[in-house]
Amino acid sequence: IDSFKRKGFITGLFSMIVVGAAAGARCVHAKACRTVGAPFTTNKYLRFSIRLYKKIFIMTNSPDGSLAQRREITSESVAAGQPAEPAQVTQEIPSASQQDFLVQYVVIRKDLWGSLRWPLGSVVAQACHASSAAMWMYRTEEATQQYLAPENIEHMRKVVLEVKDEAQLRKLSEQLAQGGIGHKLWVEQPEDFPTCLATRPYAKSQVAPYFKKLQLSKAPIV
């Protein structure tokens, strides 16, 4: 319950209690209501209403209002003959991380900066080559145009992963080709040396399963 709704609800409830108490007082002194049970019933309702108001006020103004408090109030309402408040159904709004966004995957060989001892700049250059080549090769794709659109250019998403060596990189490239996933395997020339690959932009849900077994590239910068 947001602040505005909470205050409105509490104010309305308090007004109902005050009106009910006044009506009860009139009823006690009215000839038509002078029965043995009328004063007791009115006082019992008033006491219940005040207790209910206090508990709801505490629960709605306290960030740690627990489910147990809600159940206590509901059970007390039923015991007093009052209709229980219907359960409120809230719809969870997916966060940005849960939404299906466009993303480009870049996969680099880990042995470049490991056993082969490539400098950081050379490794970054390979990733840039693969990413740029994939964008150009699939520039007519709607997803690529949307990914590079002026309104989205400041919000591009890339996921950089790593594979162990050339054999694993080539195997991944073959799997992507078999699945119809557009990508560029970058082979450094004139050495004819494959270094990394990059996909064209895709909706994450469409390509993420191909990369679920790979780790994020977390090479230390030294």
UniProtKB/TrEMBL annotation:
<keyword id="KW-0378">Hydrolase</keyword>
<keyword id="KW-0732">Signal</keyword>
<dbReference type="InterPro" id="IPR023476">
    <property type="entry name" value="Pep_tRNA_hydro_II_dom_sf"/>
</dbReference>
<dbReference type="Pfam" id="PF01981">
    <property type="entry name" value="PTH2"/>
</dbReference>
<protein>
    <recommendedName>
        <fullName>peptidyl-tRNA hydrolase</fullName>
        <ecNumber>3.1.1.29</ecNumber>
    </recommendedName>
</protein>
<dbReference type="InterPro" id="IPR002833">
    <property type="entry name" value="PTH2"/>
</dbReference>
<dbReference type="InterPro" id="IPR042237">
    <property type="entry name" value="PTRHD1"/>
</dbReference>
<feature type="signal peptide">
    <location>
        <begin position="1"/>
        <end position="30"/>
    </location>
</feature>
